[in-house]
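User: quick one, fold this
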Amino acid sequence: MATDTLTVEPDTIVLARLPDRYEVVNGEVVEVPPMSFYAVEVANLLNKAIVLYLLDNDIGRSRIDLLYRIPIPEDKTRNRNPDVAFISYDRWPRDLMLSLTGNALDVVPDLAVEVVSPTDPAEDVQEKAREYVRGGVRVAWQVYPRLRELHAYDGSSSIKVYTAADDLDGGPVLPGFKVKMTDLFPATPPVESKGVK
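Assistant:
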Protein backbone atom coordinates (compact mmCIF):
# COMPACT_ATOMS: atom_id res chain seq x y z
CA MET A 1 0.00 0.00 0.00
CA ALA A 2 2.67 2.53 0.95
CA THR A 3 4.80 3.79 -1.91
CA ASP A 4 8.10 5.30 -0.89
CA THR A 5 11.53 4.47 -2.26
CA LEU A 6 13.81 1.61 -3.14
CA THR A 7 17.44 1.97 -4.06
CA VAL A 8 19.21 -0.62 -6.14
CA GLU A 9 22.94 -1.17 -6.05
CA PRO A 10 24.76 -3.76 -8.21
CA ASP A 11 23.93 -6.81 -6.07
CA THR A 12 21.93 -5.35 -3.20
CA ILE A 13 18.38 -4.17 -2.88
CA VAL A 14 17.84 -1.93 0.13
CA LEU A 15 14.23 -1.87 1.17
CA ALA A 16 12.20 1.04 2.38
CA ARG A 17 8.40 0.98 2.17
CA LEU A 18 7.28 -0.63 -1.05
CA PRO A 19 4.02 -0.88 -2.98
CA ASP A 20 2.12 -4.15 -2.74
CA ARG A 21 3.04 -5.09 -6.32
CA TYR A 22 6.09 -3.63 -7.98
CA GLU A 23 8.94 -4.26 -10.39
CA VAL A 24 12.42 -2.77 -10.55
CA VAL A 25 13.27 -1.16 -13.90
CA ASN A 26 16.53 0.70 -14.45
CA GLY A 27 17.08 0.89 -10.70
CA GLU A 28 13.69 2.43 -9.99
CA VAL A 29 10.64 0.91 -8.32
CA VAL A 30 7.69 0.82 -10.70
CA GLU A 31 4.36 0.19 -9.03
CA VAL A 32 2.34 -2.45 -10.86
CA PRO A 33 -1.38 -1.62 -10.93
CA PRO A 34 -3.71 -4.26 -9.53
CA MET A 35 -5.07 -6.81 -11.96
CA SER A 36 -8.77 -6.94 -12.71
CA PHE A 37 -10.69 -9.70 -10.95
CA TYR A 38 -11.24 -11.44 -14.29
CA ALA A 39 -7.51 -11.32 -15.18
CA VAL A 40 -6.66 -12.80 -11.76
CA GLU A 41 -9.13 -15.62 -12.36
CA VAL A 42 -7.60 -16.34 -15.80
CA ALA A 43 -4.11 -16.40 -14.23
CA ASN A 44 -5.35 -18.80 -11.55
CA LEU A 45 -6.96 -21.12 -14.11
CA LEU A 46 -3.79 -21.19 -16.19
CA ASN A 47 -1.67 -21.85 -13.10
CA LYS A 48 -4.06 -24.65 -12.06
CA ALA A 49 -3.69 -26.29 -15.49
CA ILE A 50 0.12 -26.12 -15.20
CA VAL A 51 0.09 -27.47 -11.63
CA LEU A 52 -2.12 -30.41 -12.70
CA TYR A 53 0.29 -31.13 -15.55
CA LEU A 54 3.24 -31.01 -13.10
CA LEU A 55 1.61 -33.62 -10.85
CA ASP A 56 2.27 -36.17 -13.62
CA ASN A 57 5.38 -34.47 -15.02
CA ASP A 58 7.57 -33.46 -12.09
CA ILE A 59 9.93 -31.17 -14.04
CA GLY A 60 9.68 -27.91 -12.09
CA ARG A 61 7.47 -25.44 -10.24
CA SER A 62 4.64 -23.13 -11.20
CA ARG A 63 4.32 -19.88 -9.26
CA ILE A 64 1.94 -16.91 -9.23
CA ASP A 65 2.93 -13.33 -8.51
CA LEU A 66 6.59 -13.78 -7.57
CA LEU A 67 9.39 -11.28 -8.29
CA TYR A 68 12.31 -12.59 -10.42
CA ARG A 69 15.58 -11.06 -11.49
CA ILE A 70 15.41 -10.90 -15.30
CA PRO A 71 18.73 -9.29 -16.29
CA ILE A 72 18.97 -7.67 -19.69
CA PRO A 73 22.15 -6.13 -21.10
CA GLU A 74 21.14 -2.55 -20.33
CA ASP A 75 19.76 -3.34 -16.84
CA LYS A 76 21.35 -6.19 -14.88
CA THR A 77 19.15 -5.50 -11.83
CA ARG A 78 15.83 -5.75 -13.71
CA ASN A 79 13.16 -7.41 -11.54
CA ARG A 80 9.85 -8.47 -13.05
CA ASN A 81 6.71 -9.93 -11.56
CA PRO A 82 4.98 -12.15 -14.12
CA ASP A 83 1.41 -13.14 -13.32
CA VAL A 84 2.32 -16.84 -13.72
CA ALA A 85 5.74 -18.44 -14.15
CA PHE A 86 7.12 -21.92 -14.61
CA ILE A 87 10.67 -22.66 -13.46
CA SER A 88 12.28 -25.99 -14.35
CA TYR A 89 14.39 -27.90 -11.87
CA ASP A 90 17.30 -27.23 -14.24
CA ARG A 91 17.02 -23.54 -13.35
CA TRP A 92 15.73 -23.85 -9.78
CA PRO A 93 16.92 -27.19 -8.36
CA ARG A 94 14.69 -28.92 -5.84
CA ASP A 95 17.31 -28.51 -3.12
CA LEU A 96 18.26 -24.89 -3.84
CA MET A 97 18.36 -23.02 -0.54
CA LEU A 98 16.46 -19.76 -0.51
CA SER A 99 17.59 -16.64 1.28
CA LEU A 100 15.36 -15.39 4.07
CA THR A 101 16.01 -11.84 2.89
CA GLY A 102 15.65 -10.06 -0.42
CA ASN A 103 12.65 -9.69 -2.65
CA ALA A 104 13.51 -11.07 -6.07
CA LEU A 105 14.33 -14.69 -6.76
CA ASP A 106 17.61 -14.73 -8.67
CA VAL A 107 16.31 -17.32 -11.14
CA VAL A 108 15.03 -16.61 -14.66
CA PRO A 109 11.80 -18.56 -15.30
CA ASP A 110 11.49 -20.87 -18.29
CA LEU A 111 7.98 -19.51 -18.91
CA ALA A 112 6.64 -16.07 -17.96
CA VAL A 113 2.98 -15.21 -18.40
CA GLU A 114 1.33 -11.80 -18.42
CA VAL A 115 -2.47 -11.69 -18.25
CA VAL A 116 -3.56 -8.38 -19.71
CA SER A 117 -5.84 -6.20 -17.58
CA PRO A 118 -7.74 -3.12 -18.77
CA THR A 119 -5.04 -0.92 -17.15
CA ASP A 120 -2.18 -2.47 -19.20
CA PRO A 121 -1.08 -0.47 -22.26
CA ALA A 122 -0.64 -2.87 -25.21
CA GLU A 123 2.83 -1.56 -26.08
CA ASP A 124 4.06 -2.14 -22.53
CA VAL A 125 2.81 -5.72 -22.50
CA GLN A 126 4.43 -6.51 -25.86
CA GLU A 127 7.68 -4.85 -24.80
CA LYS A 128 7.71 -6.87 -21.58
CA ALA A 129 7.22 -10.17 -23.46
CA ARG A 130 10.17 -9.37 -25.72
CA GLU A 131 12.21 -8.30 -22.69
CA TYR A 132 11.48 -11.59 -20.94
CA VAL A 133 12.88 -13.52 -23.88
CA ARG A 134 15.95 -11.25 -24.13
CA GLY A 135 16.54 -11.82 -20.40
CA GLY A 136 16.63 -15.61 -20.77
CA VAL A 137 12.98 -16.65 -20.42
CA ARG A 138 12.48 -19.46 -22.95
CA VAL A 139 8.83 -18.67 -23.72
CA ALA A 140 6.65 -15.67 -22.81
CA TRP A 141 2.86 -15.81 -23.03
CA GLN A 142 0.57 -12.81 -23.20
CA VAL A 143 -3.03 -13.64 -22.41
CA TYR A 144 -5.76 -11.32 -23.70
CA PRO A 145 -8.91 -12.26 -21.72
CA ARG A 146 -11.31 -9.98 -23.58
CA LEU A 147 -10.19 -11.40 -26.94
CA ARG A 148 -9.78 -14.91 -25.52
CA GLU A 149 -6.37 -15.12 -27.15
CA LEU A 150 -2.86 -16.02 -26.08
CA HIS A 151 0.27 -14.82 -27.88
CA ALA A 152 3.40 -16.96 -27.45
CA TYR A 153 6.90 -15.46 -27.87
CA ASP A 154 9.90 -17.78 -28.05
CA GLY A 155 12.66 -15.53 -29.31
CA SER A 156 12.02 -16.25 -32.97
CA SER A 157 10.70 -13.56 -35.27
CA SER A 158 7.22 -15.09 -35.26
CA ILE A 159 4.55 -14.97 -32.59
CA LYS A 160 2.20 -17.94 -32.25
CA VAL A 161 -1.40 -16.90 -31.60
CA TYR A 162 -3.83 -19.26 -29.87
CA THR A 163 -7.56 -18.47 -30.11
CA ALA A 164 -10.58 -19.83 -28.27
CA ALA A 165 -10.85 -22.59 -30.89
CA ASP A 166 -7.36 -23.92 -30.08
CA ASP A 167 -5.70 -26.16 -27.54
CA LEU A 168 -2.78 -24.43 -25.84
CA ASP A 169 0.37 -26.54 -25.82
CA GLY A 170 3.46 -26.11 -23.68
CA GLY A 171 5.96 -26.58 -26.51
CA PRO A 172 9.50 -27.45 -25.41
CA VAL A 173 9.07 -25.80 -21.99
CA LEU A 174 6.14 -27.98 -20.87
CA PRO A 175 6.30 -31.02 -23.19
CA GLY A 176 2.95 -32.77 -23.45
CA PHE A 177 1.04 -29.95 -21.70
CA LYS A 178 -2.29 -29.26 -23.36
CA VAL A 179 -5.35 -27.32 -22.23
CA LYS A 180 -8.39 -26.07 -24.13
CA MET A 181 -8.22 -22.32 -24.44
CA THR A 182 -11.93 -22.13 -23.60
CA ASP A 183 -11.14 -23.66 -20.17
CA LEU A 184 -9.01 -20.61 -19.30
CA PHE A 185 -11.78 -18.04 -19.74
CA PRO A 186 -14.82 -18.05 -17.42
CA ALA A 187 -18.13 -16.95 -18.92
CA THR A 188 -18.78 -13.21 -19.04
CA PRO A 189 -21.69 -11.05 -20.14
CA PRO A 190 -21.48 -9.84 -23.75
CA VAL A 191 -19.04 -6.95 -24.29
CA GLU A 192 -20.25 -3.97 -26.28
CA SER A 193 -18.04 -2.96 -29.17
CA LYS A 194 -16.23 0.34 -28.60
CA GLY A 195 -16.48 1.78 -32.09
CA VAL A 196 -14.85 -1.17 -33.86
CA LYS A 197 -16.83 -2.11 -36.94
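User: anything notable?
Assistant: DSSP finds two helices and 14 strands in the chain.
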